Request: fold
Amino acid sequence: MKRLISIFALSLVIISCSKNLIFKDTLINQNEYDQFGNIPQRNFYYPISISDSLQEIWQSSGYGSNTNTSITIYADILFSPELAGNVVGFNLDNGKELGARKSSGQISHSAVVDRMRIIYCVNQIKENYGILYFYDFIKGEIINSIRINGGISNELIKLKDGIIAVTDFGEVIKYNFLGSELWNTKTKAITLSDPASDKNDTFIANSNGEIISIDNETGKINFRKDFNSVFESGIIIKDKKLFLGNNEGILFCLNSENGDIIWSFDSNNKIVMTPILDDRNIYFGNLNGDFYSINYSSGKINWQFNSGGLFNASGLVFNNLIIQPDLNKKLLIINKQDGKIIRSKNYNEKVKMSPVFYDNKIYVGVDRGEIVAYKLEIIND
Amino acid sequence: MKIKKYSYIILFLLFLSTNLYSQFYFFGRNKVQYDQFDWRILKTEHFDIYYYSEFEEMAEIGAAYAEDAYENLKVKFNNVVTRRIPLIFYNTHLHFQQTNITPGMIPEGVGGFFEFLKGRVVIPYLGSLEQFRHVIWHELVHVFMTNKIYNVLKDHRQPIDRLPPLWFIEGLAEVWSTEWDTQAEMVMRDVVINDLFVGLRDFNRIYGTYLMYKEGQSFLEFVKKEYGEDKILQIMENFWRFIDFEDLLEFVLNEPIDKIDNKWSYSLKQKYFPLLENKLPQHIQGHKITDEGYNFVPRYYKNNENNEIYFLGNRTGYSSLYKIILDEDLENVESTVQLIEGEKEEVFESLHLFKPTLDVSNNGKILFASKGGARDVLHLYSIDKEEIIGSYEFDNIISIEGADFSEDGSKVVFSAIDKKGYTDIFVYDFTQNYLDRITNDYYSDRDPVFNENGSKIYFVSDRTEGKFKQRFNLFEYNDEDKKLNYATYLDCNISKPRFNDDYSELYINSDYDGTFNIWRLDRDKNHNPVSITQITNFITSAMDYDFIGNDKLVVNGFEKFGFQFFIVDLTEINNTKNQSIDFNISEAYGKWNAKKIILPSSKEKLEYEKEYTLDYAVSQVAADPVYGARGGAIFSLSDLLGDDKYLFMVYNTAEIREDFLSNFNVALTRVNSEARTNYGYGVFHFSGRRYDIRESDEYFYERSYGGIFSLLYPFSKFQRLETSVSVANSDKELVDGLLTRKSLLVTNTISFVHDNSLWGPTGPLDGSRFRFLLGYTSDIKYSNVNYYSIIADYRYYYRLAFRTSIALRASIFYNDGKEARRYFAGGSWDLRGWNRFSIRGEKMWLSSLELRYPLIDEFAIKFPFFGIGVTNIRGAIFFDAGNAWDTDYEETLGSIGTGIRINFLGFITFRYDIGKKIEQNFTKLQPKLFYQFFFGWDF
Reply:
């Protein structure tokens, strides 16, 4: 009996242990996919054509579920943020777990990668704050940890000289990469929308229905415009235009210099996902399962369909196809020209994360922490 | 049933717990499966819809509602439910009450439920498509919410064993399933204006009440308006973060809880206090004549010189038919008489207080409906003869609501639900014994009344088409040309049309200004309806009313969370502030069509086939320092409709390794409740050391195996016949290794059980219960055992006041024959003061007399940081007598004393008694007092 108990206890210890997130041999200045949407403006467009076949390379699981965010990549390490408070590192080539940094709480945005460190916020259990960690994964130590009132559920923005964090309570804070605060602007509004930034300004949308532009250098508010609505969709920026949807289902194209509406399109149902766009069109889905292609310049509809599911995570746009997650356990491969679903890949769990295209592969996050890597076949146009 | 061994007790309890469902062990009421339904399945994109054949059209409409709800709720919750959701439809509440999906009795106020274990949604059709839609949406909000919460907790690796508080669960289900409606408005007006409002932090005071539902809905409506609807979803999405729900609210709404609470309370006062300027409480606009219980459908009758009001009410816990006699000024009640007491026998099983049917004819007959077995029955009661003079039931009609006599009393028009679920208008001619159906479609047609000569019938219906689609408007049916026309065309709901005494004016109830008030229908010179004019201007609602002459009304009003009667003098009403609403009846035409999901092929409509899935599984392994390791498991499987269950139990009691195989205990039982006759059978093998409290205080080894078969036939909700046969081979070591007793025992029992008791917080308060059992047990192989059994156990509860009763118990337990088993008594449950289970014998009698009364209604202690409170502490004064014996009766034992009982969380009662035993053959009181603490319900 004693032997049985000992084996059982030892098994528990072994099961509950995992390697820490330390990669001593990792080289600096490697390629990276360092934040949600890859750049501060958020970009989900890749000007290549691909075939509609997804060839699975590997699949691997972490410790918990993910939300509508994405993985990030540095060199050959894939970082997966988990709602249970963990950042799990996987080998990019084979999916093998390399290590995990476990915390008690919630991570609901991508871990921003800056050379040898990752930056992420763990929203604390039973507390109304989060802790923003600056973690050096080569040394395996925390460089800085900062208490954030309310916590952070929004995607961080990585700029050249630091990061911008927008807290759930609407505080906008810029830090350098070591975690020193550069400026802090309190907007005093609940904010649950992923911000975006161009070279000079950061744009945030909040639950009071405001779009706020903040100077990246000083933190001063450039403009603050009330749209009398609730914004939960993320923002995407292109050519001095902002694109985002609101809870009434209206997609806005705004002038980034003054917040004026250039055009708007009513989809009738709540938009949560960050829209995606290419050179000509913008693509978005709503919670009713409607997916639209809208002319980038005119705001006129090109096509639409209803999947019967629900769109709350951003997809990827290629020259010929769109790869779009549908929460209803599907990954849709859509013909960009006419909106026809070419293929629908079914999963056992909900598809929550935005897929990431990197090195001719895409990485799809499925519920319960499962990451699946597929090789894409590039087609010469 | 003779309980043979410890192992049999487990088997018996296993069997009993499922077979008798809510029945409480020895007694209990019955859930009667009057009907056998031919279940079918309609498979839509997200749902498996279970219905029976006559209800197909309504099931198709319900399917469309369900799919609409799914599409709406997935947006609201930002979530999809990926499993198929089973929706089970019943065509009436009466059929719904027969469901086996939940084991308990379903009260009339329950309009559907979501069952968490298998995710089943069970919904009755309640007579209106809008209500059907509302309930489907309401229950699907529960489905989505529990799925969302489950996923939020699981995503964050939190224990999945908690849910938001009930006020949030039910409030959310209302907010996301319907608009703020008349009923919610009525309740909130009442509680705010009458200072009965309970704030957010005191919701535990109204836990589980209807007020909690409505206040929860009101609070979430406030959150929507003040903070934004997105915050409701955020409350759920952040549920993982805080254990304390108030902390969660503070985090999401970003304000201290007191401030949130105060803002909500203030917003309600801002909304409702201005009503006092132009509106009146019932007791100001009228004269209150009743003050107790719940009272519905007042009907006035001038009985010679007496002013009599007949009504349905609940003043004792049983719904009943009453009469009150008013003085000549209609000021005071001279007497109240209970004419028919419901809920005590099958014929008056329920008088449907929530959907009552009552009318009094000009020739002194009362018509009322009651549930009598499988369907509603109309009863005719003679006021002169003071007895039922006729009862009428109709083949195709299941449920009846609302009736009106013709002027001469020869006909009655009523609304009823048929097997298809259609709520239509019927006319029954007493003289011709003929039932005429006036409408026949899925619209809800209700509250019919005859005009003076019976040539027209006015009723309300949701068949309204056009800009006021699906509103309940007034319709006129002309019996001569059989045409049906709109009589109003308004953006409101109308109910209870009634003519005044001389039939010169038609009055209606309308919620045009927020709650139901009485209005008059106005006609132009061509007798065409053109407007309605408000007559009463109550803050809350008038539920029903009747005329006393042309100038006075008896009104059933809702005030201070009660339903009471008020006399309103129409000549004293100041009508200057009341409004008239015009309408153009020529705009009204046609009827709307309900959306349906009609599946083209029979492939999607399947016959129901039983598939068994796990209900529950419990296992345990324990290491005992004396007996070593032991373990066992119980699990249960059932079909989706819960009609057929398999129970499996396995455990092992080996004390040493060598005994492992020989000490396996296994039992498998099947229980079928599909038909009116429930049956069960099973096999068992039990082996191991036993301790039988009835025989001695020593252990013995026994191995037994065999089978059991049982039948249960309910005559009604209150009475049943039970019979069982068991065969068991028993090898028993009476003296370890020396003396054994082998037997092949066959036990036959038959019992008659009656129970119509009404329970208070700690036990029965009214009604009666009894069981009469005959049994015979014999060893058919070795003749070692051979005895017969008789049990007669009678309990009667006599109500002295609403919460005070005298309880009487008289029981005899009699076994006689070879190796007859012994009964036991003593302790808090029977002979109080005597040591627990210390009195044993093959024969036993028991008698108790007990006064049960309320002692303390609420007892609370408030500490600096928290408070504790106990409610419904009850007192008892008791006298017990009895004894047990084998061959010679020796003495009578007894006890006398007093005690208190406290119900803890609704499922256990703690009891503390102080008294004196009566000793030495009832000749001497115990010198000192005894003190006894235990748990258990009052007998």
Observations:
- Chain A has one domain: 22-379.
- The helical segments of chain A are 2-16.
